[in-house]
Amino acid sequence: MNVTLRDVARKAGLSIATVSRVLNGHEQVSPEARERVERAAAELGYEPPLRRKPASLGAIAAVMPNLNSYFFTEILRGAEQIAYERGFALALYTTDGRSKQEIQNRMGRLSDLAGVVLVTAGPHHFGTESLRRPVVVVDYGSEGSTFPHVTVDNLRAGYAATRFLIEAGHKAIGIITGPLSMQSAQDRLRGFRLALDEAGVNFPTHWMWESDFTEAGGYAAVRSMFASGKGVPTALFCCNDLMAIGALRALRERGVAVPQDMAIMGFDNQPVSAAAFPALTTVAQPMFELGETALRVLLRLVGGEELETNRIVLDTQLVKRHSV
Fold it and tell me: Which pTM was predicted?
């Protein structure tokens, strides 16, 4: 049976990262730690790295719906950056068109799986408890969950976006949400409704369209708005930038000027938002930093550390451009 870094770390009573530094000759290790690692490695018969192929400290599994969105790819980039710096391999699994059981089975084949980063879905929904590895969740945090999660305050961000539209003079405001099965979409809608309620602004429910965070979805929602014959708002809060881009295209086809005839608010601050015409006013969320932070938290858990909190909330920022 092969002796792993994890085995040496367990016997030495130290983190995997410390064991790796000792065995790779790093100087920034205390003499006591070096002695403990070398003694544990000798007793277990661990083969020094110089006599075998170089290996990572282990694998981190990143699980996300797809790579069709800049949001997901930026989270992945941030996660990969930290994994690379810390000497871990990153294995990517996308869930679109695949069963959860299949993904779990594939992750289970990783003999050196150290932990899991799960994007936009809850661990209880995905069943990652069965892997018996540390799990950190990104963009999801159900009430009462014991799993650490890294997110932004989507409710507050949705509230701030809507307040900006109200303060710009709009009293007839519609919303294109993401899939309401997703917590981020629910929270942005809640923030939207809270801002309207506080301002005493009436909200006809037929001015809400549930969509799918895609450009085609935003386009279809605006087409549906005009086809309904129930009137149109003077402003639209599109709950991500891609849907806002689709909305802009549909409005342009109808000859509706933005922002003169209708204001458009986005969310995410993807690069496309600055390149749009007119450039989108939007809510920036730190996508790359979400991935970085999730990996840092996960590697603390892998190293046996205790966290001060299970909820890490990163800041959003309203970016004012020309669509409002």
Answer: 0.79
